[in-house]
Specification:
535 residues, alpha/beta, Helicase, Ruva Protein, domain 3, Purple Acid Phosphatase, chain A, domain 2, OB fold (Dihydrolipoamide Acetyltransferase, E2P), six-stranded mixed sheet, 21% strand, elongated
Length: 535
């Protein structure tokens, strides 16, 4: 490395460097990656790095490098020279891998790649300024769509009440269903539960009182604010018309859905869902990512793994591709590369090793270079430009709807839902699917606004589950699970990041390198545990 480059790297970590240290480093031909690892071992209180200090910590870094069993298996940002030498011969490593993979696929009766159609994506910019009227239009759109879904699911004999009834519209038995958006909930001192509903047709809130002896009383306490629900009940005895300001509720009705039949494809396509690479974090486990490349490249696999991997045509990465910068206090102590651009550049060097005949589809998470509120547009084109140059990679927003023939997949990252699940659904961090089932019942990915989850001010609500997907898949939770719920296949992904929270370390590590793979023809889901692949 040149002297200027060396000085720049040291300054990145707030160190000054002496001339004797610079001379030694230039003669040693140390790689940038090893240098950064060396620097990270040096105490922050040393004002100037000289040769004596480097020699002392060189022994430490050598011991650490011996523990890296697969350091040269996967290229990174910091072995670019070797990759460039291969490219000069017009037969780089990734091209060799792709050729070898195609040859093996032909021997294993190669299937055609699927025609993946993006059904719904997130616009790069919101439709208007983030003012009150824009948000009003968003919530009106949510109410309209979800109330229509509710009405379609309600049996014909049921009476749907308006919130402002005339005397001629009051049913004789005063029974009916009131539909509205949940403004708030509370518990009275009499242990009765109150749900306050609002409706665009009425400026007056309706207090729906659920009595304790109702069969679903415990469930009422879990109602999400800003969700659209129906309440089955009866008008007060002294009701004389006008706005329905009080209503005795007996049961709740969520938009929900009837069981569906999986829409299989005519051909069998295999899609591997991965998430939460968190490249740039000191807890990113490079060895597991190396096994992913080995798996997809059909390199030194058993017959069983080779057959499975040869059929994979698509890899979806569901957010948190990088660790990001400045997302939480002291994050600088947990990251290796201190800019978003360098993290995406390093990740691109890894993803380049995925064979070119495999399509890569990515969506962002809260750690990525896009805005934090949901829904999120695709990763910023300038910041992630090195990643987005990959010819077999397509970048989209979060959430993303896509189809293969008649089969529909809803992919989303899932941020902040862990907090929402914990508050309302007695969330078990080992079982995020429990919470996702509830989202399907509400037909919305992030119903509650203002507490944990900021919302992007689009006039249209892109978080509504307006149709029932065949597959819904999420990242974020670092937990790999699969369950079928009323015909919908719910998938969650593991991660490539060693858990840095000591409290959850053992729990999270169970899903390290573990990811679901879907067969689009049979609907079968298989968990691929990369840790079990021999290197």
């Amino acid at each position: 490395m040149k002297q200027d480059t060396l000085v720049k790297i040291f300054l990145e970590y707030s160190f000054n460097v002496a001339l004797d240290a610079l001379d030694w480093l230039m003669k040693s031909n140390i790689s940038e990656e090893k240098l950064r690892q060396l620097i990270q071992q040096i105490p922050k209180d040393i004002p100037v790095i000289n040769l004596k200090i480097l020699e002392k910590y060189q022994k430490t870094i050598d011991q650490l490098l011996k523990q890296e069993t697969i350091e040269n298996d996967v290229s990174s940002k910091y072995n670019t020279i070797k990759l460039e030498e291969k490219r000069e011969s017009n037969l780089g490593k990734s091209e060799e891998i792709t050729t070898r993979r195609i040859e093996k696929k032909e021997n294993l009766k190669q299937k055609p790649s699927p025609d993946v159609v993006i059904k719904r994506d997130i616009p790069e910019r919101s439709s208007d300024k983030p003012n009150v009227e824009t948000f009003r239009q968003l919530f009106l759109n949510r109410y309209k769509k979800l109330s229509e879904i509710l009405k379609n699911n309600i049996q014909e004999q049921e009476t749907i009440l308006k919130q402002n009834l005339s005397s001629t519209e009051i049913p004789e038995d005063k029974n009916g269903i009131l539909i509205g958006m949940v403004q708030d909930t509370c518990v009275l001192h009499t242990n009765k539960f109150v749900i306050q509903l609002e409706n665009p047709d009425s400026e007056v809130l309706t207090r729906c009182v659920m009595v304790q002896d109702s069969k679903n009383f415990p469930e009422y306490r879990n109602i999400l604010r800003d969700s659209v629900i129906g309440i089955k009940g009866v008008l007060p005895k002294k009701y004389h018309g006008g706005n329905v300001t009080a209503f005795w509720g007996k049961d709740i009705i969520r938009p929900s859905f009837n069981p569906i039949k999986f829409n299989s494809t005519t051909e069998s396509y295999k899609i591997l869902f991965i998430a939460d690479t968190h490249f740039g974090s000191k807890n990113f486990i490079r060895s597991i990512f190396a096994k992913l490349i080995q798996f997809l490249s059909l390199k030194s696999l058993t017959t069983q793994y080779e057959k499975i991997a040869s059929e994979i045509s698509t890899v979806m990465i569901l957010g948190d591709l990088i660790e990001g910068v400045g997302l939480f206090p002291d994050q600088k102590d947990e990251i290796q590369f201190h800019s978003l651009q360098s993290q995406y550049e390093g990740l691109s060097m890894l993803l380049k090793e995925i064979p070119k005949n495999i399509e890569i589809i990515i969506i962002p998470g809260e750690h990525d270079a896009t805005h934090v509120p949901n829904p999120q547009p695709a990763i910023d084109k300038q910041i992630g430009k090195e990643l987005l140059k990959l010819p077999n990679l397509k970048s989209h927003g979060n959430p993303l709807w896509l189809t293969i023939e008649e089969m529909t997949i809803l992919a989303f990252h899932g941020q902040v839902n862990d907090i929402l699940f914990e508050k309302h659904f007695h969330f078990d961090p080992l079982k995020p699917i429990i919470g996702i089932k509830q989202l399907l019942e509400y037909r919305h990915l992030y119903p509650e606004y203002g507490t944990f989850n900021p919302i992007t001010p689009y006039k249209k609500d892109y978080l509504i589950i307006d149709e029932v997907p065949d597959v819904i898949v999420s990242g974020h939770f670092h937990q790999a699970h699969f369950e079928e719920y009323k015909g919908v296949k719910i998938l969650t992904c593991g991660s490539f990041q060693r858990e840095h929270n000591k409290k959850n370390k053992n729990i999270i590590n169970e899903s390290l390198g573990k990811f679901p793979m879907l067969d689009t023809q049979t609907g079968q889901v298989e968990m691929i545990d990369l840790k079990k692949i021999q290197v």
